[in-house]
Structure formats: structure tokens, C-alpha cells
Amino acid sequence: MSETPQHDVVILGGGLAGLCLALQLRDRFPDLDIVVIERNAHPLPLAAHKVGESTVEIGAHYFSETLGLREHLDTAHLHKFGFRFFWTEGREDLEGVTELGVSTVLPTTTWQLDRGILENHLGECVRQRNIAFHDGSVVRGVELGEGDAAHTVRATIRGNEQTFSTRWVVDAAGRASILKRKLNLAEDNNHDVNAVWFRIDAMLAIDDWCSDDEWSGRCDPPERWRSTNHLCGPGYWVWLIPLGSGAHSVGIVCDAKMHPIETMNTFERAMEWLYKFQPLVAKACEAERAKLLDFRFLRNYSHGCKQVFSGDRWAMAGESGVFLDPFYSPGSDFIGIANTYICELIALDRANKPVGPYARMYEQLYFSFYANTMSIYRDQYPIFGDAEVMSIKVIWDYTYYWGVLCQIVFQNRLTDIALLGDLNKEFNEAARLNLDMQALFRRWYALSPRPNPAVLLDQRDLPWFVGMNTTLHDELDDAEVRERLRGNVALMRNLAATIVARAQAACPTLDVMGLPAQPSAHTPLFASVA
400-443, pLDDT tens digit by residue? Predict the structure, then answer.
């Protein structure tokens, strides 16, 4: 065994979370001694079989602005045409069902990521920044030092046994969850959902699946294929995500109780399932079957964790700690949030300040973001089958996301304890409103007649909604940040009242259980699809 000098940080895992953390640390601390140990050998294949190809606003902001990857994203990946939804269960007429999306792209840019291309680029950046990146290597064990003692990481580095002594150890090894397993920190989050997904080395252009000129002309440009397309039914959604390499990613995500994983856990079974529930997707995949690149399934993919940051100089990033759900693509968001907190903890330690109290505060904030976001998913999968209720839920979920969490991140306030404390009342109100609205959506769905008319519900028709997206990158001073957040919570209150009125009009017997009944300001929604 060859001994090495003590390092500052050893990162277990050089996937998306680990490589991004290494670059973020290097940007902040040019003299930091960083080691990254990654199982997979580089370069990765294009269309690498990993979760997390679609970005939303926080993840996109983290990659493009925090890490400075904008040029790479613009040149090697695809600009996303937003999220798009179709209620097409058992249907082959896209022009005959409800569609939710935008007719033109919203101002804040997001991307569809080819993970092989991105992680290869990150690996090159890491090495260019003088970070020791050991790909094709395996972590064999971790011993955490007590008190101020160094941690020890044992690994096989390209076939050679090596021991690393380090002040900080960060687990970014994904579902291998090295520290979580070692410290028995796994936690069930009561969200039992499964997923299967595969890549086909061909473009699955949803625009070509319909020859109706009026339908095609609803979008400008008519490039729905650049969206993260969702084809929905009760208890599930199917994704279509294009990749910069020219391949297409296809996934089925479903409630385990409604669509058992055993009905889709091979490519042949997945195709049978698609022919039954989403025949348009099945036929498109069948035509390109010879170009199938891979297939994978994950049972009960969502998971929690009892602890992710420690004053004893260890932390977890990415899926090694928590993972919510692929819907709304929050994985990159939570990578960016966790990595930012880890950087702050390391900064405190380098300044000889006590890490423990801040680790507990940051973890509490991180877990609150996680819990509030989880409420959007838990017990909500049946609603995916209702075009009206789900469309309104999407607008609500985006409003909560853009109005609160995006503001905290975009304004660099994740560690602003004073601001977060000052606005605690408003944040609690927003969280409570969200919980109450998620429950309302479940009750509305139970009574809904399930309308599914041939219409585009164009998010561009909601000026207040477009305005929220347009102003995400505003540079605000301290007073303006507080004003923006308070105003957004008031907007949520008005939107809740507007949705309540809409739901009661559709289902007069609906119990609204104390939710706001009268908006104090006009917050328009789509015309009823009933």
C-alpha cells in the first residue's frame, strides 16, 4: 500500500455531482488539494446511460452561471422547448387531445443534456484545473477520523492499491451511497415509484407523428421534439428527451401500485406496455428498434437520508444522499444546492470556524427544500391521467418553484441565514399553501369528469406566469429580494383562490377545506377545458 500526503478533499464518485463539486471548489479555492475517484473509465460513451438529461431553471443556472459552462451547453447540447404534456393514453391522434406547453420558448434558457458529452467535458475541465481525477478506479473503503483526525480512503487506482489521507470526504458515488451504507443513514420517504428507460440512436421527432397543419402551426418554431415531452395517463408518464449526440432518451415512470415494474422490466415488456398505453411511442421505437443502445430499470428509485452534512468534515452530494423523482427534473437542482452548501462548510473549516452548527443549519434548510418538493410528488401520480387537474397542478408547481426556491438560489441566498429567518413566516405560508393545494388536487381528481379536448393550453397566454420566468435573472438588492419573495407568496395566495374557484366550478361538491376562496388580485388561468 502506497501512502500519499494529506489532501484537502477526496470526492468519492466522478459523475455529475462529483465533477461539478470539484470545479466549484476549484473556482472558490485555487489552492485546494482535490482528489476525485470515479469507477467509470473516461471518455464515457455518448448518450451515457445516466439519469438527469433534462434541466430546469436552478440546475441550468448552476451549470451555466455558477460553473461557467454556458458556451459548452450552447454548442454541445440542445436548447429545451420547455416541458410539454399530452394526454394520449391509448390514442394515436395528437391533434385530438389536450396539450400543455408553450407556443414559443420562454426567456430563461434550459437545456437537454447528453450526459456522456457533458461528463466527458467536465472530466477534461477538472484535469485542466489541476484536480487529480482518477477514472477507472474503485473506492474500497472509508475510515472516518475522530475529532480533528484525517479521514482515510482506500481505493484501487487503475489496478494499484492506494490510500488517501484527507481532511474532507464527500460521497458523490450515486446509488452506491458509500457513506450512507457505512453509517446506516438510509431512510424511506414513502414514495414508491419505479422507472425504466432506454436510449435509441435516432431522433424520435414527435412533430412528424401528426400531419395536421393546424396542430403543427400552434408552435413557433414547430419543434416540439426539443421539449421534454410527457405522454400521460393515470399513474404514469412517459418521457421523450432528445440528446445532442442525435440519440433520443425514452422513459416510463410509474406508481408501483398502479403499474408494476414486472410489466416493463425488459425492453420487450416495455414495448408491450407502450403498445397498450402509448402506441405512438411504441410505433416510433419499433421503427428504430435496431438502433437500441441500452435499457435499464430502477425499482423504488426515490430515497431519503437521515443526514447529509456533518461537522466531522464529511458530506453527501447528489443521489448518494437523497433523490426525489425525475418529474420536473429536480436532480441537477439538488446537486447544485448541496454542492453550494458543501463549499460553504469547507470555507468555514478553512477559516478555522466551527463547522458543526452550520452543518446542522444548512442540512435543515436542505431537508426543508427536499420535503417541500417531495410533497409535489407523493401520492400525486394518479392525477397524471387528468388533463385539466394536472395542467393546473403544473402551473401551481411551477409558481411555487419559480416564486420561492428559484429566488433563493438565483439571488445567491442559500446561506443567507438572516434573510431566511426574516421571511420564515412567508416561507411557512408558502409551504402550507403548497401542501393544502396538493391535497386539493387529489380531491378534485377524485370528482373530475376527466375532460380531454383538442386544445393547446399555452402557458404563453398567462402574462403573470411568463413574467415570473422572464425576471428570474434579475439582479436584486437586499430589500428587493425580500419584496420579491413576499410578493410571490401573495401571488401564490391569489393563485390558490383562483384555482379553488376553478375547481368548484368544475366540481360543485368539492371540499376546499379552508383554502383561500377569493383572490385579492386577478391571476388568470386557462379557460376551462370541461
Answer: 999 999 999 999 999 999 999 999 999 999 999 999 999 999 99
Please tell me the predicted confidence (pLDDT) of residue 529.
60
Smallest CA-to-CA distance from 57 within 396, 473, 454, 485 is with 473
| Per-residue pLDDT at 528 | 67
Hey, which bits of 222-338 come out as E strands?
228-233, 236-242, 248-255, 292-298, 304-305, 309-310, 314-316
Low-confidence ranges of the chain (pLDDT < 50): 1-2
C-alpha distance across the termini of the chain, in Å: 71
CA–CA–CA angle 376, 319, 374 (5° rounding):
10
* CA-to-CA separations, 252 to 113, 115, 344, 356, in angstroms, rounded: 18, 19, 37, 41
Count the Cβ atoms, other than its own, within 10 Å of residue 177: 21
Measure the CA–CA gap between 486 and 397, rounded to whole angstroms. Answer: 17
Domain 2-45+118-184 belongs in CATH node 3.50.50.60 = yes
Block residue for cell numbers 478553512: 350
The closest of 253, 410, 263 to 328, measured between CA atoms, is 253
CB 359 within 8 A of CB 309: yes
pLDDT attached to residue 24: 98
Q: Within 10 Å of residue 505's Cβ, how many Cβ atoms? A: 11
Asked whether the whole model's pTM tops 0.90, one would answer yes
Q: What is the pLDDT of residue 514?
A: 85
Asked if 70 contacts 106 with a C-beta cutoff of 8 angstroms, the reply is: no
What are 111-149's pLDDT values in tens digits? Answer: 999 999 999 999 999 999 999 999 999 999 999 999 999
d(CA 417, CA 266): 48
pLDDT value, residue 520: 77
C-beta of residue 26 within 8 angstroms of C-beta of residue 32: yes
pLDDT, position 3 = 52
Give the strand pairing for 34-37 and 132-134: parallel
Q: Which CATH number fits domain 79-101+193-298: 3.30.9, 3.40.30, 2.30.30, 3.40.50?
A: 3.30.9
Task: Report which DSSP code applies to 115.
Answer: H
pLDDT at 437: 97
Helices (H), 329-450: 331-350, 356-374, 387-400, 406-410, 417-422, 424-447
Output the pLDDT for position 2: 47
In the chain, what are the domain boundaries? 2-45+118-184, 79-101+193-298, 387-530
Give the Cα separation of 112 and 226 in Å (integer). Answer: 8
